[in-house]
Amino acid sequence: MSEITKLDNADKKCSFGPDQFEAKVDNVAPVGSFPWALIQVYLGKPVKRSGWADSVYLLPKYDDSGAFLYIQRSEADANVLPWVPEPDDMVACDWKLLDCMLSFDLTVGAGKYDDSGRVWGYLADEEWASIGVHPFGDLANLQNKTDIKKFSLFEMHETAGTIELKVSSDNNQDGYQKMVNLFAKDLTIT
Predict the structure, then answer these.
(1) Distance (Å, whole) CA 149 – CA 155
(2) Is the pLDDT of residue 143 over 60?
(3) DSSP letter assigned to residue 72
(4) What is the mean pLDDT of residues 149-161?
(5) What secondary structure, in 3-state letters, does 14-31 show?
(6) Angle at 66 (CA atoms; ends 31, 164), nearest 5 degrees
(7) Are residues 46 and 57 in contact, defined by beta-carbon separation less than 8 angstroms?
(8) Which backbone phi and psi does 8 adopt, to 5 degrees?
(9) Would you say 165 and 152 are in contact if contact means Cβ atoms under 8 Å apart?
């Protein structure tokens, strides 16, 4: 009878034991484990390893019909590539959700300003109804850890190729300072 060789991973001990992987009523993998990270990605939540740079994380890739294709990894230089886990990734217990200041699901709609061409994205209110632009798109699952109270516009212009984000805050010096603080940070859109 052959003897089983066990890997020496004493320095990589996880805070959970093998019994936690057994089927249970909630059938959830231990938080921080590789199976847990995969579940989060399948649920559309970006995850990362603790040692990865802030701009590196995993997220799902879907085709145009919404069918899951594969897991992709964002890179610091804005490349998004298919991801294949390394053995270290699969045994790690340091997986965590990407901590986002602002997260939402955007259903892209289309609008048209009088002479400036079509726009795509989201417009929340009738602010530009006087020039014939009415709300379009949808913003759902908003998770907001910023001091900004209202996000009313997220759009891409057909001609300029720019993305605009319009936010509202209190109409006073404190509100203005909140805006300055938010936009002084590096913002990443995924």
Answers:
(1) 18
(2) yes
(3) E
(4) 66
(5) CCCCHHHHCCCCCCCCCC
(6) 90
(7) yes
(8) -90, 100
(9) no
| Type of residue numbered 122 | Y
Summarised one tens digit per residue, pLDDT across range 6-28 is 545 445 556 666 566 555 555 57
Letter string b/e over residues 37-66, b meaning 16 or more CB atoms within 10 A of that residue's CB: bbebbeeebbbbbeebeeeebbbbeeeeee
Q: How many angstroms separate the CA atoms of 89 and 49, rounded?
A: 8
Q: Give the separation between CA 2 and CA 103, rounded to whole angstroms.
A: 52
Among candidates 180, 173, 114, 101, which has minimal Cα distance to 142? 101
| CA distance from start to end of the chain | 53
Residue matched to tokens 């089927």: 23
* Polymer length in residues for the chain: 190
Q: How far is CA 86 from CA 89, 127, 130, 179, in A?
A: 5, 50, 56, 41
Report whether 83 contacts 96 (CB < 8 A): no
Q: In whole angstroms, give the CA distance from residue 172 to residue 149.
A: 13
| Helix H or strand E segment including 68 | strand 68-74
Distance of CA 185 to the CA centre of its chain: 17
